[in-house]
Amino acid sequence: MADLVIKNGRVVTSGGLIYGGLAIEGEKIVRVGGDASLPQARRVINAEGNFVVPGLIDPHVHMSSEEDASLEEGIQQNWPVETDGAIHGGVTTLGHFVGKPKAALVPLLEKTISYGERFSRIDFFCHAFVLDQDRLAEYPELCRRGVTSFKHLFNAYKPREGEKLASMLGGPSDEGMLFRSLEFAARYGYPAICMVHCEEIDIIEVLENRLRQAGRTDLLAWTEARPNFTEAMRIVHAMEIAKAVGAPLYIVHISSAEGVDLVTEARRQGHRIWGETGPSWLTHTGEMETEIGGWGKVNPPLRYSRDCERLWRGILDGGITNIGTDHGMGGRTRLKKEGGKGKHNNIWDSRPGIRGGMEHMLPSMMTYGVLAGRISIEDLVRVCSTNTARAFGLYPRKGVLAPGSDADIVLVDPNKEVTIDKDFYHCLCEVSIYGGWKVKGLARTTILRGQVMMEDYETVGAPGKGRYVPCRAY
């Protein structure tokens, strides 16, 4: 007899839709099929025709910030709240970036795992944030502990006057640093991979200074200071180095049509390039000063409608393989985001970052993707779950509904409609760029490794149920 059976659903599997359900014993899925094929169970959940999908995996989450008094206090205060938002957003696994300038990564990882397992409601894996070249010596030990992804700010930030976040992140990664990192990934093999934030900060700095001198303070000024080619040129550099050493490459938060085109062509030629974007770049533009003002400040920037549409098409033609939200802890309150200077015409002093990502990831992708006819529900599962598990060595433990996989399951009601208002978020998010928008396709019930964490839109699982998941070649 199974512990739990889900029936009467539209189950999204790697082979397509199955009208039926699945059975769970302990933490694992043991059967997927039509209702008549499922065993008796101690508990049965009627999916009522809802989609049954694998838990979403958000690979791009910053669960610490400069606002935390310490790493330990930040985890204790923030992780229970943010991962409550995650389960309401159908996210069952997150990828967190570990790293501080001039700080050894292994001790930070140990603390993150210890405290994270005490306070997280969902599973998590970790990336190494490579903020200086000394961290390269830690790669072998990090890999032994299951951290096989290494993120570089590929000339994206540099300490400069008035840019607090850049000073906190240290200096950018140059070509030599990325080259050495990619060489390691090539030698180590799957799932070792380098992740790159691609922006050319030296040109951006020139353009920023011009716009400041012209008195521009609007959201579009942030976009104009970071034109599409400043992302594309860095993507080209990173891809050429990766091709030369034979290493895989994961490009984070692609925002431009040119970036999608580059990844699409590289993948067509057979290169191991993954391309990530996020909901905000799919749904918003830099021309929305009236609607969102400085709340829309993010790196890389929100761009133009043509870029949004090319990103959506990229999900279909292969240029966009993954969705990551860049969910972060800093600037979640209105005061911190705006710097006390208001929402509008305050772009230079606003804190960068789009907040609430794990919670609005699913409804934004359902509403403006699946239900708008841009992508299918199978596409959503592919880019929001399966591909991410494959990219980071979690597949088939995660990212798929199949016998032997973790029972990370979400029931999605495509007809459930809500307005994103002050009562929508369970995480801390006072500055949502989706405020006032109506969305459909919400997570009704979220299950983590066979444990029901959220049921009929109500939280039922406590903090501490999440586990650290090492990245391995399963």
Q: Which features does this protein show?
A:
474 residues, alpha/beta, Urease, subunit C, domain 1, TIM Barrel, 2 domains, nine-stranded mixed β-sheet, nine-stranded parallel β-sheet, 18 strands, globular
Topology:
Elements: E1 2-13, E2 16-25, E3 28-33, E4 41-46, E5 51-54, E6 56-62, H1 71-88, E7 91-98, H2 105-119, E8 123-129, H3 139-144, E9 149-154, H4 164-169, H5 175-188, E10 193-198, H6 201-213, H7 219-224, H8 228-245, E11 249-251, H9 257-268, E12 273-277, H10 279-283, H11 289-292, H12 305-317, E13 322-323, E14 327-328, H13 334-338, H14 357-370, H15 377-391, E15 409-419, E16 438-448, E17 451-455, E18 458-459
**Euclidean distance between termini CA atoms:** 28 Å
Shape: globular
Which CATH C-level class of the largest domain is it? Alpha Beta
Number of domains: 2
Mean of residue pLDDT values:
96
Low-confidence stretches: none
The percent range for helix content is 25-40%
- Number of helical stretches of at least 4 residues: 15
Residue fraction in strands: 15-25%
Q: Mind telling me the C-alpha Rg?
A: 21 Å
What name does the CATH topology of the largest domain carry? TIM Barrel
CATH-wise, what's the superfamily of the largest domain?
Metal-dependent hydrolases
Helix-and-strand structural type: alpha/beta
Largest sheet: 9 strands, mixed
| DSSP strand count | 18
CATH architecture of the largest domain: Alpha-Beta Barrel
